[in-house]
Structure formats: C-alpha cells, structure tokens
C-alpha cells in the first residue's frame, strides 16, 4: 500500500520487490549471496591486514588495491545486509531517506572503485613505460593525493543524485522492482518530467566510469606498444605477466557494470530477472574476486592468506 506524507506528496517508504518472478526462490538464492558476501568480507579484510603488515607490499599498486578493498567493503556492506534481510525475512520495506542514502553510497562508491582501478592502470603504465621514473612519479604524497582526489570526485559528482530525487512526486507506485535502491529504478517511479535528471546521471556516468574505462584502454595500448618493442620474447612475457591480475580486475568490474548500465537505459526487452541478476553479480563477484585474483598471482599475498586462514582455524578449534 502507498504510504504518503500528505503535506508534500512525498513517499515515506518504498517496498523492494527482490527478483521479480523468483520470489518463491529467494531463500535458496540467499545461500550463494550470503556465502559470497562472507568471502568478500574475509578476503578484503585479510588483504588489508596482509598489505598493512608486510612492508614489502607497500608499493603503489598494492596501496591502490587497499583503497579498492575498502571501497569493496563499503559497497557490499551498504547493499548485501538489506538484500539478505529481504530474502530471509521478507523485509521489503525501506524508508525513503534510507533508500536515497543507499542509492548515494552505491553510485558514489562505485565511482570511487572505477577511479582506483584507473589509478592501478596508471601505475602499470608508469612501471612499464617509464620504469626508471616510477618511484619519483608515484611518491607516497602523489598516491595519497590521487586517492583523496578519487574519493572527492565520487563524493561530489554523485552528491546531487539524492536531491534530484528527494522532492519529486512518486505517484505511480512505491514498489521498486529490484533488490536495492538505485537511481534508474527510482526515477522510473516518478510521474513528472525527468529528462534533465536522467541527462545529468548519464553525463556523470560518462565522466566517471566511461572516461575511466577509455583512459584505462589508452594506458594499455601504450603499454602494449612498449612491450612489443622489448628485445626478447621472455622479457615481453615477463612484463605482460605483471598486468594479468589488473586486467582480470578490469574485466570483472566493468563487464557487469556496463551491462547493468546499458540494460537499464536501452535494454527494455531484456527480462527483469536477468537484469537484476547481473546487477547483483556486480556487487557480489567483483569484491569477492579481487582478493582471490591478487592472492593467486602474488606469492607474498598468497602466503599471507594461508597464514591468516591457519590462525583463524586454530582460533576456531580452540573455542
């Protein structure tokens, strides 16, 4: 039932539908969601502890990876608890202000993640194309400055989003056909003109995720030119191997992100469950995979993970 504040015709609550058509399977769907969420929490916390305690990992790539892990923890923790509550307890209700807050965190933190992945690409570009200047270009001050700039960009550019939706009239329904609150799902419920708001959202998406992806592609084009000019095949393979982990992170992050973005705006004929599954994969898989990808490729991180798991197992057995 619609719950209105009569003085300004604003909704006071929304109802999250979950995954349309699969409501009866929510309990079963929650099992992999919960497992992936726990793995994401454990993996990213362990990654942060390992890099913090091992001074040999205090390099630009791993410091940017720490920033990405913090963003992953923020993103999953702002969405998954409510999603699991919906699946387990049919807790569909979310207050209007809470919905706008969740939407802001989702979009701003996602923008920060994109920026950190771009910063990691810049690190690879400098390390491969200008190896002798790597330590002088990416100094601790520059790394901190880049991190703060990325956070500032995400926080400021996305800050208008809640206000763009705050004072609109939601006269269609208060049911959101999704597992969480996000800009396009909310704006579809508005009964007034929304072209300017949609345009702003599209421009911000291009200036952040879209531009980041273009710059990442440009950096890797320059990296490939440098690599193919190396004298030996062994040197080329060794240099390219330092980029493998980052390339996997790019694919895991941007593939579901772009699919979700494009289907929301242009994929009107795609079945809603498919779109929502992909949107949730974006929040689930990327935060879980980032520690695994770097753990597999980096021996010191891999050894740190094994040590971390051993300590946890010993603690559990001693209880």
From TrEMBL:
Q: Which Pfam families match?
A: 7tm_4
In terms of Gene3D superfamilies, this protein maps to:
Rhodopsin 7-helix transmembrane proteins
Give the UniProt entry's GO cellular component terms.
Answer: plasma membrane
Could you list this entry's UniProt keywords, alphabetically sorted.
Cell membrane, G-protein coupled receptor, Membrane, Olfaction, Receptor, Sensory transduction, Transducer, Transmembrane, Transmembrane helix
InterPro entries according to UniProt: GPCR_Rhodpsn, GPCR_Rhodpsn_7TM, Olfact_rcpt, OR51/52/56-like
Q: Which SMART domains match?
A: 7TM_GPCR_Srsx
The compartments listed are:
Cell membrane; Membrane
Question: Cross-referenced PROSITE patterns, in alphabetical order?
Answer: G_PROTEIN_RECEP_F1_1, G_PROTEIN_RECEP_F1_2
Listed transmembrane segments:
25-50, 62-84, 104-125, 137-158, 202-228, 240-262, 274-296
Q: How does it sit in the membrane?
A: Multi-pass membrane protein
Query: Annotated Gene Ontology MF terms?
Result: G protein-coupled receptor activity; olfactory receptor activity
Domain G-protein coupled receptors family 1 profile stretches: 43-294
Superkingdom of this protein's organism: Eukaryota
Q: What does this protein do?
A: Putative odorant or sperm cell receptor.
Family, similarity comment:
Belongs to the G-protein coupled receptor 1 family.
Q: What name appears for this protein in its UniProt entry?
A: Olfactory receptor
Gene from which the chain derives: LOC109568974
